[in-house]
Design brief:
The protein is α/β, with parallel strands linked by helices. It has 13 helices and 24 strands. β22 and β23 form a beta hairpin.
Length: 454
Amino acid sequence: MTELLTSWLIRGPSSQQLISFNHHDIVTGALFTNQVAHIHTQLSQSQARRWLLASDDSALFAAGLCAALLAGKQIVLPNNTQSGTLSAMTHQFDGVLSDQPLCEGKRLILLKKDYPNNGQPWPALSQWGELQLYTSGSSGEPKAIIKQLAQLDAEVSMLAQTFSKQVAQSSVIATVSHQHIYGLLFKILWPLAAGYPFLSELVEYPETLTYYTNLFPNLCLVSSPAQLSRLPDALDNEVQLRSPGVIFSSGGPLSFEAASKVAHCYGKLPIEIYGSTETGGIGYRQQQQSEQAWQCFGSHQIKRDETDGALWLQSPYLGHDDWLKCDDKIALLSAQQFVLQGRLDRVVKIEEKRVSLEQMEALLRSHPLVDDAALVMLSQPRAGLGGVIILSQQGQQQLQAQGKLALNNSLKAQLLTQFERVTLPKRWRYPDVLPLNTQGKRIHTELVELFNHD
């Protein structure tokens, strides 16, 4: 496996490499080199080692990232830049790399596009920096994950080896944030190392996506299950004259129905990536059929725990040679193929009875009144489950006609076909949408917050 990312970082871009673009501007390799050199100089003059890096502009973010990696700094990537998030982690960093002031009392190195052009070359490597990312916090407090460059390089090189044919000559656009591992790899690191220009802005609206698919003949779309599931309706479920050449999805399994609808509109199935912040990518698939198996990446070894069915993983992305036990249950079809069977860490005890939240949510989603469902453990006023339900159009009509109590009872009747009454949710909420972060993952704290008000 080639060291694609390391090699690129050492030599830097050619002056003509197109780094990024948006609807009114581009960043070339020459401009990018100037940005990185100026940021690197400021970082090298500071004794501070831990730097929080945050910017909505992917090009500025990439410049700060490259400069800090080459300067041997620890780069802290927050899940978001909300004041509460930054306040809670203020002890994790000494300075800030951003295009806006974020934290009072911390040294700020301002990321900007235009620095004096005094012909500075690409910075020489002193020692490699490292990244500190955070899990999405879907089940509690975020957990810090350290990534060395060798781990990131192993994954970038494997992505290029696995998907270079599909992505060749593409421009990359994303609906997910580069502040998380998936967007960081697929929108920033892999495109930089392989020479794919990326859109410096986040694609937030279907109209923006259509604008760029009409503009570029070869487009790589980096998205999430939640966003792709909504996309066909936004496109009126019609076949599009122009579509991305390749579509990636990660953050959770995409439903077979959603994958099929995307394929109807765009003429191709999304490539789903399965993994986590800690493990990086583990496998990939395109859903030709329901319950399609996952194909393990070629550099990995996997096995199944005979006691609880857990996935065990050995991977160069981990930074060590040991086996790691994951929180997913699998059925092993071959040495390199597996089927996911739910999360082991989403099995809870209610009245001393073990309940799979994955299984209960799946049963709720099969109800004709339900489009989506999420379950959370509540501690107040007493321990038990809360159900957050996104209603179908039929469900919304029934809620208006018959009221919440009748709807609650209908859903409980569905659950009683597989679960004991004592384990069922005691409280229910019916918001318009599930609270999701920029990766399309549920925000646990906001789900719980729904039950703090009646």
